[in-house]
Amino acid sequence: MTADPDKDLYVAEALPLVGSMLQLLDRNPLSPTAGCFDRQYWHYRTMDFPCGMSQEFVLPLALCWKHPFPDNPYHQQPRVREWVLSGIDFARRSAHRDGSCDDYYPFERALGAVVFSLYAMAESYRVVDADEPELRGFLAHRAQWVLDHGESGVLSNHHAIAAAALQTTARITGESRFADGAQRKVDEVLGYQHDEGWFQEYDGFDPGYQTVTVDFLARWWKDTGDDRVLPALEKAVDLLERVQHPDGTFGGEYAARNTYHTQPHGFEVLAARVPAAGRVADRFLRALGTGARAKNDDDRLQAHPVYPFLLAWLDHSPRAETSPPAPPDERTVLDGCGYLVDRRAGAFLVAGLKKGAPFRAWRDGALVANDSGTTIVLDDGRRAVSHLTHDATYDDDGQGTVVVRARFHAARGELMTPFKSVVLRMVMLTVGRWFRTFIRRLLQRRLITGKDALPFALERRIERTATGFRVTDVITREAGAPRARHLRLGVGQTSIYIAASQPWDQGWLLPWTDLDDRIPTLESEGRVEVVREI
Q1: Which of 62, 212, 253, 295 could form a disulfide with 127 if both were Cys (CB 3.0 to 4.6 A apart)?
Q2: What is the per-residue pLDDT for 203?
Q3: What's the rounded mean pLDDT across residues 41-64?
Q4: Whether this model's pTM surpasses 0.90
């Protein structure tokens, strides 16, 4: 054990997943797919191209090879270093001629997959002290693609990752063009920060993704020593501390992107300069100790938490405080992002008002409500949901009551079919490859940003009470609206495509609320009222 056993929780959470990553890897050095981490491609052979994002798995292996983490069986094992370099080489062999890679479909050339893999590979190259001109040249080629291309939406975390990736590439190549590009990416991210401290992710503030943005900006700061980014990071961390759950976690369906991420490495890097960062990290360590971390550890995304955990262990420093104090009591409505934060004497509630006020609530540290909004299943099979909006209106009286008004929209749950798959591939194999941004925007509009309003409305009132909160929902049906078949209050429901959403979280053990007995009233009177005491 280390001198500070608490930080070993980072490693205890990460190491089992490293073994899982090795299962995903083609470890045969004579295989044509040696170094590939996409098991669906090289082993099951159910995919017709390798997912470029998967090659970020080299970084957890590189860190385990380099550092004597507690109970680390991979430390200084020659085969592990071979697999790291093999993984980078497979990325080189499978890349497009311009250095980019695909994530979800052929010729996608996805910025997210490119920057995640570039950062991981460039950092791994540095960690294992590699000297391979061919691999170094490939990393420079991929970094140049990042310099030449942008993202098709506002995703601050992707640009922060790009900054760290370019900076690391600058270190291993010695080329100033990449360091200059990293600075421009940082400036771009800072331009996406609201005065309240949050970085924009599509339609607003997502605490989970904010931990990612803070993490990679902190890595850039650590490497460059450029203190100009610190005020923005301090503001971002202060906001995260305000919305951190009592159990030390972040996120949920009230957030802009429905994510549950917590990447603690940035907090550990900043802890010596930003005291709030140390407090946030310590609360998250408690979450690891109690098993409260949301699990998003599938074959595609499991590297996302693992190397931040290992890096957090490496950059952890002793705290002045033995235990972080509870955040101060407050009730605040953040109008920029539309969040209600209500914390007092053992009770905590956070709601996304602009999303129709889905919320999470705790009592004495225990999650007692996990509301993702109201769902009406219509006779024609469509699902009308109250959370698929980012422009709900609200009024706050400043005395403990907020009233939110939102429209219902049709949930999006489109699945891939053989026909759609063939059409998409035909398009991308012919003309689509030359119009990657246009195709990506079409898909984003279809799966993520597009919204179809339905003739139902929700008015949600959230009030402070002596013992907690009262939530009153008034659901109205407009004349001529389709008939309702089911009425539910949801838990953990999402209605658009977000890769990082839908993890496993203990809050999903809370039950949905069946309101089918209220449907006759909704049909006959055009409205129904539901009152809950939280």
Answers
A1: 62
A2: 83
A3: 96
A4: yes
**Residues with Cβ < 8 Å from 200, sequence gap 6 or more?**
154, 156, 192, 193, 194
List, in sequence order, every residue forming a beta bridge with 484; answer none if it has no partner. 378
Q: Which CATH superfamily is domain 5-315 in?
A: Chondroitin AC/alginate lyase (1.50.10.100)
pLDDT of res. 17? 96
Q: What's the token pair of residue 151?
A: 């993202």
Distance (Å, whole) CA 33 – CA 43: 9
* Structural contact between residues 387 and 356, judged by C-beta atoms closer than 8 angstroms: yes
Whole-angstrom distance, CA of residue 515 vs CA of residue 489: 8
For 163-204, the pLDDT digits (tens) are: 999 999 999 999 999 999 999 999 999 999 999 999 999 889
d(CA 223, CA 281): 21
How many other CB atoms sit within 10 Å of the CB of residue 472?
A: 15
Give residue limits of the domains in the chain.
5-315, 330-412+450-533
**Residue 438: pLDDT over 50:** yes
The per-residue pLDDT for range 260-309, each reduced to its tens digit, is 999 999 999 999 999 999 999 999 999 999 999 999 888 888 888 999 99
- What angle, 0 to 180 degrees and rounded to 10, lies between the N-to-C axes of helices 133-148 and 156-173? 140
Residue 389 near residue 406, CB atoms below 8 Å: yes
Beta bridge partners of 371: 359
Class of residue 338 by CB neighbours under 10 A (exposed 0-12, middle 13-18, buried 19+): buried
CA distances from 294 to 244, 297, 446, 502 (A): 14, 9, 28, 9
**Torsions phi, psi of 45, nearest 5?**
60, 40
Nearest to 470 by CA among 330, 342, 307: 342
Q: Return the HEC string of 249-314.
A: CCCCCCCCCCCCCCCCHHHHHHCCCCHHHHHHHHHHHHHHHHCCCCECCCCCCCHHHHHHHHHHHH
